Amino acid sequence: MTVIPFPACRFTPADLVAFYRIALPKCSRGAWAAVARQTGRHHDRLLISLPGIEDPVFIFERDVSGRYRLWFREGGTRCIGSASTAEECLGVWHAAPVRRRSGAVPGR
Length: 108
Known about the structure:
Number of helices: 2
Strand order of the largest sheet: 1-2-3-4-5
Helix content: 10-25%
Shape: globular
Number of strands: 5
Distance between the termini: 69 Å
Order of helices and strands: HEEEEEH
Largest sheet: 5 strands, antiparallel
Mean pLDDT: 87
Radius of gyration: 17 Å
Strand content: 25-35%
Oligomer: single chain
């Protein structure tokens, strides 16, 4: 029996569950326009496009060493998250509680 090893640069099913747990609500609200997958010999990427912007603005990536990175592209590319697990890397997108300004009157 031949066993084919799972490439370290590929997202696991658990990685995709973690990503889509965040992505699906954003897509359904219209905050994100599309998610596309790009795989290569040394990486696996999810490219996130925003409404009205042609090129992907965010890139979630797993590289050949198994490390996760989250990139932001606007006038250049910068890493906004890096971790050894998908959950940790995507932590930058976990919703923080909404704070209201004191004295604010709703509905005005």
